[in-house]
Amino acid sequence: MDLTLTINGERRSLTVDDPRVTLLDALRQHLDLTGTKKGCDHGQCGACTVMLNGRRINSCLTLAVMHEGDEITTIEGIGRPGGLSPMQDAFVRHDGFQCGYCTPGQIVSATAMLEEARQGWPSYVSDDLERGGDLSDEEIRERMSGNLCRCSCYPNIVDAIRDTAE
Ligand code: FES
Fold it and tell me: Is the minimum distance from the CB of 150 to ligand 1 under 6 angstroms?
């Protein structure tokens, strides 16, 4: 089966033998975009987070064949052109990682999360963002709860995201 996906602004063609190939495996195994990581492969860790039309998703939970015509953004597409994005820079300055395995997913998720918050998407913690409230640390933690860090760098990750949000 031949597919054409739009990834980081580029049209990319690939051939998959099985229509059940996940978007995550298509990225990593067919397109050499290995920045997106596979952790649990079951939608629980967030290591595979990419943006689909600006919204964050777990790429292990969706099939590549479903996304012709969508705009997919991976960690390789964040910060280009021109170097690091503000979120990437903040993760470096705040030491928002240890082993680094979850970091691409954390950064993609955090980048999309800030945009969701700016657009007033409510969360379980607070629904007052539509009134222009700042993100509290509790709010950041709740909105990032889909991205796990086994090194437990959460305080530094929250610092990096708060810094970027300000
Ligand atoms: Fe997709 Fe863990 S690899 S959520």
Answer: no
**pTM of the predicted protein model:** 0.94
Residue owning the nearest CA to atom 4 of ligand 1: 43
Q: What domains can be seen in the chain, in order of their start residue?
A: 2-77 (3.10.20.30), 86-165 (1.10.150.120)
* ipTM of the complex model: 0.98
Flag whether pLDDT at 62 surpasses 60: yes
Q: Is 39 in the pocket of ligand 1 (CB under 6 A)?
A: yes
Which residue is associated with the tokens 């305080």? 155
Strands (E), the chain: 2-7, 10-15, 49-52, 55-58, 71-73
The residue to mutate among 40, 57, 144, having the most atoms of ligand 1 within 8 angstroms of its beta carbon, is 40
- Of the candidates 112, 99, 97, the one whose C-alpha atom is nearest the C-alpha of residue 146 is 112
